Amino acid sequence: MSGPAVPTSNARTAHRPLRLERPELTGGPWRRWRDVNRAVSLPLAREWLERAGNLDNLRIAAGEAAGEHRGPVYTDSDVYKVLETAAWELGSADDPDLAGFLADTTRLLARAQRDDGYLNSAYDVNQPGQRYSRLVDSHEMYCAGHLIQAAVATHRTTGDTALLDVARRFADHLADVFLEHEGPGLDGHPEIETALVELYRTTGEQRHLALASVFVERRGRGLVGAHKHGRRHRQDHLPVREAPAVTGHAVRGLYLEAGVVDLASETGDDSLLDASERRWLDMVAARTSLTGGLGSRQVGEVFGERYELPPDLSYNETCASAASIQWSWRLLLATGRARYADLIERTLYNAFAAARSADGRTYYKGNPLQRRADHAEAVGDPRCRDEWFFSACCPPAVTRLVASLEHYAATVSEHAGVPTVHLHQYAPLSLTAPFAGGRIGLRVETDYPWQGRVAITVAEAPEGPWALALRVPPWSARTRLDTPDRKDVAVTADQDGYAVVEREWRAGDTVVLNLDMTPRLTLPHPRVDAVRGCAAVERGPLVYCFEQADQQDGAAVDDLAIRPGTVFEEVAHGDLDGLGPAVTLRAPAVTVSGAHEAGLPYRTLGGPAAVDTTRPVTATAVPYHLWDNRGDGAMRVWMPLYAGDTGPASV
Length: 651
What we know:
The chain is α+β, with helices and mostly antiparallel strands. It contains 15 helices and 22 strands.
C-alpha cells in the first residue's frame, strides 16, 4: 500500500516511500491517536457533515434535495478530507460501515458532477453560471485538490476507481479550461498543484502534470486578483523561483510549497527545489514557534515578520501544522536530509498533537504557547477547542494525517550504492514491504517519546548486504547504539543526519538506538522580543508547558519563574489523569510578584517599589500536547528566568 506522496520511478528524489503491506501501529501515542481517530473523531466528523449541511449541499447540487447552499464556499473540501481519512483507515483495517460511507458518498459526488466534469456545490447551487468568476476567493480548485487527494488515497488503499473516476473528470475539465484554452487566472488558495502531481503519479497522464506546472508558474504574476490583504496574502507577489521567504496566508503558502517540491521532483527542476528549500530554511530560522507551529498572526492567518513569535498571540493554525508536515516530507523525499524529519517530529508531537483533545472530540484552530488565567473564551474563538467550526478545515486535516501516520516513518534509498531503509520517526510498529529484490520486515519496539530506547528487530530480510539508517535527532546530546556486532557504540550522525549500519542481515537481528532524554532548557533567539529573558523546557522531542492544573501551594502559573541552572526531576506516570502514559517534570521555582507605582503596572528602577516579592515553590511541567484536557486555567511554555536578588535574568 502506497502513502500520500509517491514519486514516479522517473522522479529525481533521494528517497522513496516504502510500499507498506498492512502496517500495524502496536503501541505508544501514535496508536492511541489512531484508535481515537477511528473510534471517535471520524464518526463525529461524519455526523458533522450532516449537521453542518455539507452533504445536503451535494444532494441539492445533484437535484435530490431543495434549499440553498449552507456554509462557506469550500464546504465540499471538508467532505473530501473526511473521505480521505476513511480511505487511509480502510487501508489499515476492514470496516464495512466505513466502506459503505465511502461508497455512498462517492456515488453522491458522481450524481452531483456536471456533464463536463465540474463539481462544486457552492457555485452550482447558489451561483450557477459564475464558475471561475472570482478565483481569488472561490476555492473551486482548492476543493478539486482535496477531491483528487481523497480519490488517490481511496485507489491506493482499496483499489477502487469510482472516486478516482470522478476526480479525473474534474481534473480533465480543469485542463480543458486552464491548459488547452488558457483560461485566465488561478485559484487564490493553492492545493490543486500538489494534488495534480499526485494524480499524474497515479494515472500517468501528462496533462495533469502539465497543468500543475502551469499553476505553479503563474503564481506570483498578479493573476490571482485583488484581495483586501494584498498580493502577498495569496503568494502572488513574486514568482516561486524568486520569492526569498514564506509569506502571506500560512496554509496557502505551505500547500503551495508541497506542490512546488512535487513538481520539482517529477520534472527534475533544481531551481524550483532550491527555491523551496531556501524558503523552508528561512521559515525554520525565524518564523517557527518552538512547538513547530506556523503563522504568527491571527488576522489574515499569516506568517509574521522575522522573529515575530509572540507566545500568547501566535495563531499557529492547526491546518498549517499538517501542511508543514506535508511540505517537509516531500523535501525529505527529494533530498534525503534528516532536518526535514526533525521538523516533522517537532511539529507532530507538539503543535499538531495539541490541536485535538485527548478524547478525540474537540479541536483548536489556533495553538498559542501561553494562556493567561483571565483569558476570555467565546463561541467560535479559534483559541478554544470545539467539535466543528463554520470554517471547519482543521478537524478533518487532523483526522486525515493521523489516519496515514505510518507512511511517514520510513523510506528507502541507495546509500553509497547500498540498498538502505531509513527510519525517520520512532513509534512502536510492525511493517513489511518489498525491498532490494525481496521483502523486508521490521518490528520497532519503544516507549518513545517517554523513553529514548528504540529497538529495531529484523523479522524478514532480503539476501545480500543492505543498510539500516536511523535518524539521530539533534537534541540527543549523547546517542549510543547496539548492533549485532558491537555494543554501546557512541554515535555520530552522517552528513544527512543518520546513523547507518550496513551488513548482511538475518531474521532476528536487532539494533538498539539509545537517545539522550535529559531535560533541557531552551533559550530564544535574542530577536524574539516577546520572550526575551525566558526559557522553555524540552525533553526528547517534546516541548513542555506549565499548566495551572499541576501547580501546588497556591502557585499561579502567571507568577512562576525558574532559575537558569534548574535541574528537573522526571516523574513517570502509567496514566496521567486518564490521558495515558506520560513523563512530567518537577523542579524548584519561585513565584514573583511586585508592587505598582501610581496605579500603573510599571516601577522605577531603583525606586521604593522596585524589589520583587518572591516565594519558593515546586513547579510541575507537562508535555505541551496534553494541555487543556483537565479543566480551564493558565498555561505557558516560555517561563521567565529569575536570577535571585538581581531580578530577571538577562538573556
